[in-house]
Amino acid sequence: MSIGRNISADEKLNISMEMFIMKKSTLIEIVNKCIQTGSYNSIKAPIYNEVSKFNLNAYEFKGYLQCVNSLQNYYKTSMDMLN
Questions:
Q1: How many independent structural domains does the chain possess?
Q2: Distance between CA atoms of 34 and 43, rounded to whole angstroms?
Q3: Of 36, 50, 62, 77, which is the most exposed, with the fewest CB atoms less than 10 Å away?
């Protein structure tokens, strides 16, 4: 299984929503690894880098999804949702 990041290459693409459901012990292990190594700049990085160590499953979400990363995009997304 592979996980794709949204790099805005295509209008429509099967990508990861970057939402993960995991055991508390797994999350603690990942956080501790981030703290100990200091080599990760986000909590998602070790998940992507060590994806082969995890038992992954995927769920296809067919609803509305938009990346909100600016004030302008927040406004556009809000207007889209009203429609």
A1: 1
A2: 7
A3: 62
Model confidence band, residue 1 (pLDDT cutoffs 50, 70, 90): very low
The answer as to whether 41 is a domain residue is yes
pLDDT tens sequence across 56-83: 888 888 888 888 889 999 999 999 989 8
Q: With a threshold of 0.70, does the pTM exceed it?
A: no
Q: Is residue 40 situated within a structural domain?
A: yes
Tokens 């508390």 correspond to 24
Q: Report yes or no on 44 lying in a domain.
A: yes
Distinct helix (H) and strand (E) counts, the chain? 3, 0
* Residues 13/4, Cβ–Cβ less than 8 Å: yes
Return d(Cα 7, Cα 11) in angstroms, integer. Answer: 10
Supply the range of the domain harboring residue 63. Answer: 24-82
Structural domain includes residue 2: no
